[in-house]
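Supplementary Methods S3. Input chains for the assembly prediction are listed below.
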Amino acid sequence: MNAIGVDVGGTKIAAAVVSSEGEILNEVRYPTQAVPPNRLVETIARAVTEVKDGYAVGGVCLAVPGLILAAENKVVFSPNLHEIEDIRLDEEMGRRTGLSVTVENDANAAAWGEFRFGAGKDVDHLVFITLGTGVGGGVITHGVLLRGSQGSGGELGHVTIDPAGPRCGCGNHGCLEALASGTAIERRAREVASELPNSALGRLAIQRRVLGEDVTRLAQEGDEAALQVLQETGMWLGIGLAGFVNVFNPEVIAVGGGASRAGEFVLGPARKEVQLRARSPSRDLVQIQEASLGPESGVLGAAALARGEDGEYVLGPSKRVT
Amino acid sequence: MNAIGVDVGGTKIAAAVVSSEGEILNEVRYPTQAVPPNRLVETIARAVTEVKDGYAVGGVCLAVPGLILAAENKVVFSPNLHEIEDIRLDEEMGRRTGLSVTVENDANAAAWGEFRFGAGKDVDHLVFITLGTGVGGGVITHGVLLRGSQGSGGELGHVTIDPAGPRCGCGNHGCLEALASGTAIERRAREVASELPNSALGRLAIQRRVLGEDVTRLAQEGDEAALQVLQETGMWLGIGLAGFVNVFNPEVIAVGGGASRAGEFVLGPARKEVQLRARSPSRDLVQIQEASLGPESGVLGAAALARGEDGEYVLGPSKRVT
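Predicted structure tokens for the full assembly:
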């Protein structure tokens, strides 16, 4: 049977009907900004009802950024979505849609999407990391989605890789997120721009705020300053990934998120650092590659995590979810 | 039924008959140094036969340091035990003992011992870390022993926590092992001794080589230099543990190994660092404590990982091993 995955993000709510094979049969999107106050639950329910549109559907899973108590189907903390905190979403949403509804962390859902249908579909051990405003992650080990005892595990962006490094949004210093996120690229771009004012990056920075995508574009055009920023970012990413290689011994590390569009400018130096720092045979085996599902990994993974009335996974994973 | 666990170490071979409740019914030990060349397999087999001594036993598991291919019951690489590399130990040992024999990494076995019978016996998520000459580790997440795709996962000692830090035995710089092992304590003790020559540590270092246990003893006597060494070690340990807290969201982190005898001198600063660096709610939940089985964790864990002729775990774990 099909399932519905919903990606509840800070900018959009995307709901999709997904088949057992990971095909998106129908999809709707609402900009989160357009949702009137106190109407978030209602809007999500509307998206679900609308996307269902006659399809036979066995269950729904919401992928939400922040801290999730999966066992209670509750969002404990979500930075931009306070409205849905501390609500039994399974009950609230179930009442409105007549469907079985569960809740999952968005990065875990995206990791599960890549595992079931994307870069990890042929393996049992996958590390997924997403480089966006922050750095999110999800781990599948021995076919098991690593949630941790409270569902707050898999926070790959918040391992310390430079104890005296820049302050991270989480309060710590030198987290992977503070050194390899899109935000970190922009910060470092400002610094390098002022060190190399005659570079294309330096000249742009005088005119306006430099975005991550500017750095990628300038690197593609061969600008030395932009190349340096991405090379350093890749090096930091690689320091973090080397640790994950030693800890998880995964077949694949899939890198997604906006900043992953810098592609080999970041992944090349990251791979080099992993070869320098990780141990054999783990480092010899691991494939570090771009995630293959793009922004759809969230709805696909959420759908694959949806459970029916009987508590079983609707899309019937061949591998284990705990 | 009972099982036999064997801890095949660089200094001793310890074999024990263990009951389903984790009770050691019989134990024998041989110093590894006394084993004649090319007699290691034979000696292990003798230890097994001797310890069996009339007990009903369903299977044997050998815990070996180094890289293990668990699926093939083979030691791929073991720093001080080259003799047993690349041998089908299940076949060689089975022939000699008439028992079903499997092989496991020693730190994973010790972690499993703490999980089944020790500091982690009441939880589903345990991080075990052993501070000895090196830093070893093992992780149980959702009741699953994390081996990774080749059985070389769980290498917690080789995550980078200070990219420009001291060189590690593995070739990398700034691994947790390079900063928080017994070896690291001795190295740092030499440095602090020369900075503070009038401290008790400084005076001892002039007379002879300072060992880890000297540092603990001097700290207990209140020597400032020794206290500083252990406080710094605990801080580095805490930086590593904070990452594991965010990644694994475990209920318990159990710290074992020789250097853990420094107890609160190391664990106190480690806990403080975890509170500074890890995220809620994971950091609020986790208990960081001394491992409870001591050096017996290896034989106990190995016994609990022994499989019978039918491939089932002899001591019948209630939790999952993959």
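Chain B touches chain A through 47 residues (CB under 8 Å). DSSP finds eleven helices and twelve strands in chain B.
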